[in-house]
Write a structure and sequence with these properties.
This protein is of the alpha/beta class. 29% of the residues lie in helices and 22% in strands. Helix 1 crosses helix 2. The two termini are 17 Å apart. Bound molecules: (4S)-2,6-dioxohexahydropyrimidine-4-carboxylic acid (DOR) and zinc ion.
Length: 425
């Protein structure tokens, strides 16, 4: 195996030092390291972070390989600084059996760009009627620990309770897409002043908040772990704050787009801004940012949702919800949080790795630790050109925006997947 000496690099914002990688692990961290056999990567001006971990990625394979594949999504992830992603179950067929989750896991290994950890569906076909074979998915080679019907809410409270009870045996997690379907029928965007003006059916904040409130009570009752996907409202933050204060085993994520964009984007009628949950108000954005800093929201997760051109470049009402996220997440975090490297490492690497139980990920570079890390140039600014993205889809809401930060290199178990900002496979 190869060795790399990253010279003069700031590890998570600290004073510059050298990092030596050998045989897949960090061999040493310290100033003036000497390793004649190693390939030198000049880290001057760069920040080394533990490789980013995304708890919420849609890779679209099997079924919609025109929009993304495990390989293309893995490449997008590596270019975004990620070393591990959790692949959501709303594929076709749905990842609701040991066979499908093993297929996704194997495709991830073959691509070899990031660790792909499949998420299993909670219910058969995401239909919300019968529990999927959670135990078989947990026991499979993919070792599934997170289950989610994401894209759909597990709306039936009895089913949600049973799912929480089932996964308790192996300390699994139910990741809920919190959306009371009876309150969002026909919804096109956030319900509020802008939706009223545009005459579009609204998606009320309470549709999210009501499910989170119910689910924290169910998780508390059962004693199981609940994870709340893409929290988008100030009211949800308050429900989570109270639940955490009571000691409920709940974690929560926020997406980069909900930290940056508001429902006023819908005024353009450009479906690139259509997403589920919808973009909310400036007050919600402010509450989400504060909650992320405070820790009421534990992590940033991308909800990377690639869609083919025909599913996105059409009338708003017919467009699929979702936005690309993997290749821009770190830049948005830097824009929103500033160079708070320890906070960024905590919310985008250490905590998501811990929640998902991904061994060897989310660890700061230190001797003996698997060399999963990313190098960021915080001074660089780049203009997002959709055609230059590695994703097979083009639905980024940041097209032609100039964003701070650039991923220079990503290492997966000591081997670069990205160098000089370019993917190596
Ligand atoms: O906007 C979204 N897109 N939200 C989801 O929950 C699902 C996702 C998708 O699969 O496209
Ligand atoms: Zn989602």
């Amino acid at each position: 195996m190869s060795s790399y000496l990253i010279s003069n690099v700031s590890v998570v914002g600290a004073a510059p030092t050298d990092v030596l990688i050998r045989d897949g692990v960090v061999a040493a961290v310290g100033a003036g390291l000497d390793a004649p056999e190693a390939t030198v990567v000049d880290g001057t001006g760069l920040v080394a972070l533990p490789g980013l971990v995304d708890l919420h990625t849609h890779l679209r394979e099997p079924g919609r390989e025109d929009a993304e594949t495990v390989e293309s999504g893995s490449r997008a992830a590596a270019l975004g600084g990620y070393t591990a992603v959790c692949a959501m179950a709303n594929t076709s067929p749905v990842a609701d059996t040991a066979g499908v989750v093993e297929q996704v896991w194997r495709l991830g290994r073959e691509a070899g760009l990031v660790d792909v950890q499949p998420v299993g569906a909670v219910t058969v076909g995401l239909a919300g009627e019968h529990l999927a074979e959670l135990g078989a998915m947990a026991d499979s080679a993919a070792r599934v620990r997170i289950f989610s019907d994401d894209g759909h809410c597990v709306a039936d409270p009895r089913l949600m309770r049973r799912a929480l009870e089932y996964v308790k045996a192996f300390d699994g997690i139910i990741a809920q897409h919190a959306e009371e379907p009876r309150l969002t029928e026909g919804a096109q965007m956030h319900e509020g002043e802008v939706s009223t003006r545009l005459g579009l059916t609204g998606w009320p904040a309470v549709a999210e908040e009501a499910i989170i409130a119910r689910d924290v009570l169910l998780a508390e009752h059962v004693g199981s772990r609940l994870h709340v996907c893409h929290v988008s409202t100030a009211g949800s933050v308050e429900v989570l704050r109270q639940a955490k204060a009571r000691g409920v085993r709940v974690t929560a994520e926020v997406t980069p787009h909900h930290l940056l964009l508001t429902d006023s984007r819908a005024e353009t009628y450009d479906p690139v801004y259509k997403v589920n949950p919808p973009l909310r108000t400036a007050a919600d954005v402010a509450a989400l940012r504060a909650a992320l800093v405070e820790g009421v929201i534990d992590i940033v997760a991308t909800d990377h949702a690639p869609h083919a051109v025909e599913d996105k470049e059409c009338e708003w009402a017919y467009a699929r919800p979702g936005m690309l996220g993997l290749e821009t997440a770190l830049s948005i975090a830097l824009d929103v949080l500033g160079p708070q490297w320890d906070l960024i490492a905590e919310r985008m690497s250490r905590t998501p790795a811990r929640i998902a139980g991904l061994e060897g990920h989310g660890l700061d570079p230190a001797p003996g630790v698997p060399a999963n890390l990313t190098l960021v140039d915080p001074a660089a600014r780049r203009t997002i050109e959709p055609a230059e993205l590695a994703s097979r889809s083009r639905n980024t809401p940041y097209a032609r925006m100039t964003l701070p930060g650039r991923i220079v290199a990503t290492f997966l178990r000591g081997e670069p997947t990205v160098l000089d900002g370019k993917a190596l496979k």
